[in-house]
Design goal:
single chain, mainly beta, Methylamine Dehydrogenase, Chain H, five-stranded mixed sheet, five-stranded antiparallel sheet
């Protein structure tokens, strides 16, 4: 079979063009490297997942510059919390871990009564986590089989201090305010627990259950998603000052996924995501809902794309920075998006190797995020240009970044993987390993040459 000269020329141009791009990309990215002499500053407390209502999990501007991986030998979906040189996280083998954020050496571990999926919340020298699993009790009304509890442990030693038992799972991360831990869980209850002694101050009920929808604290209001299997999904606002449900809004089109989504918010809006039914059997559309924080009225929605329903973590977590909303798509097309949160206008989207479920983090104009094929990206926030990619290779059967959101402390990224490893690496790491980036732009160019007729995500998955 004769090969046309123009295709040979095209391949040569792609190859050398890729090398040219990587060379100048490395030089260009030097300006994104942090100052090695910057002062390392750790947070002194963590009141909720993401450290703020916008859920941008970033702290400090120093430079740790260490790389390691810690093997928990069990899937990690807990978002790590970093405090004074220690990384804290939970795993599906029921353990809570404290390891050195410089070496990955184990400091202490504590075994709970069930899987630990929450991000540790820290205050008063104590660490708070929840236990539970995603199995349903009879009737599919209460989620979480076995023992389920809210724990308080000593931050320095991991010693047990108290626990509060619940009849449903506690997989969503808590929020903390004025010596009170707040949690919504798998038995349709919202709890306010005394953080010092573990006694219940008050509780209220909501519609459906909360699975992995971690709470969002903004002033005196807490926001989270709830619902039952394949029925209407809700977003809820609890007024913790008067101990009552402020409002609970059904989300149109939504048929699932909301209970997996952790809301983000700013001064005006709260954002949550769900899955909508489509006219095609077994196909769903991921929908972004932006609501008025005060009233719960929907301001705008956006359908991200159609695809097969994910097995776990059905929607991607979003972050809000300034006037922009950033989120990924878990179904259909492996994309990551930027929106103007005030208007709903899409600024840009970028194709990824795999679907994106955990939240991104943004610092100094650069987004850092992971996909379900164990790739980690750096992307320019202003225009969506991919600056760096690294693929984390693993021999374990499960090898995917899913529900564990990245934590960025002093330009060091910490994130858990389903393969059981907690990874720690400086952001420079993403610019020093560029073969994956070269492949990315090569296949991206080929896809564009064929007029976008190639399914980029499937193409990459099957050949690389």
């Amino acid at each position: 079979m004769r090969i046309k000269i123009k295709y040979i020329i095209l391949c040569v141009l792609l190859f050398f063009g890729g090398i040219f791009f990587i060379y100048f990309n490395n030089i260009f990215n030097l300006r994104y490297f942090p100052n090695n002499n910057a002062l390392i500053i750790y947070p002194n407390h963590v009141i909720q997942q993401g450290m703020n209502s916008g859920k941008n999990n970033v702290f400090g501007n120093g430079y740790i510059n260490k790389s390691f991986k810690f093997n928990s030998k069990s899937s990690i979906v807990s978002t790590p919390t970093i405090m004074n040189g220690v990384a804290y996280f939970g795993a599906n083998n029921d353990y809570v871990y404290a390891i050195s954020d410089l070496t990955g050496k184990l400091i202490w571990k504590y075994k709970t009564d069930n899987q630990v999926m929450t991000q540790p919340i820290i205050a008063n020298g104590m660490l708070y986590v929840g236990s539970g699993n995603n199995f349903f009790q009879k009737g599919n009304v209460v989620r979480g089989t076995g023992q389920n509890a809210i724990y308080a442990l000593s931050l320095s030693t991991g010693k047990f201090i108290w626990k509060y038992n619940t009849s449903g799972e506690n997989m969503s991360s808590f929020v903390y305010k004025k010596n009170t831990i707040y949690e919504a869980n798998g038995n349709s209850k919202f709890y306010a627990i005394n953080a010092k002694n573990g006694h219940m101050n008050w509780k209220t009920s909501f519609k459906g259950i909360d699975s992995m929808s971690s709470l969002n604290l903004s002033g005196n209001f807490v926001y989270f998603g709830s619902g039952n299997i394949d029925t209407t999904q809700y977003i809820n606002s609890i007024n913790i000052k008067i101990h009552k449900l402020q409002w609970s809004k059904p989300l149109p089109m939504s048929f699932g996924g909301v209970t997996d989504n952790s809301p983000s918010s700013n001064s005006k809006y709260v954002v949550i995501e769900g899955l909508a039914l489509t006219s095609t059997v077994n196909k769903f559309n991921q929908v972004v809902y932006v609501l008025n924080k005060r009233t719960g009225q929907i301001q705008w929605t956006y359908k991200l794309g159609v695809g097969i329903r994910p097995r776990n973590m059905e929607t991607a977590n979003s972050i809000i920075v300034g006037n922009n909303l950033y989120t990924g798509n878990t179904v259909g097309n492996g994309r990551f998006y930027s929106f103007n949160i005030n208007t709903g206008k899409m600024n840009w989207y970028v194709k990824l190797y795999g679907d994106q479920k955990s939240a991104a983090v943004l610092q100094n104009g650069i987004l850092y995020l992971a996909d379900s094929y164990s790739n980690f990206y750096s992307i320019k926030a202003s225009n969506g240009i991919v600056l760096g990619i690294h693929k984390f290779i693993s021999t374990e059967k499960m090898n995917a970044f899913t529900a564990s959101n990245p934590t960025l402390v002093d330009n060091e990224i910490y994130i858990g993987n389903l393969n059981g490893y907690l990874y720690a690496f400086p952001i420079n790491y993403l610019y020093q390993y560029n073969f994956q980036l070269y492949k990315y732009y090569t296949w991206y160019a080929i896809g564009n040459i064929f007029g976008g007729r190639i399914d980029f995500q499937s193409f990459i998955k099957n050949i690389i």
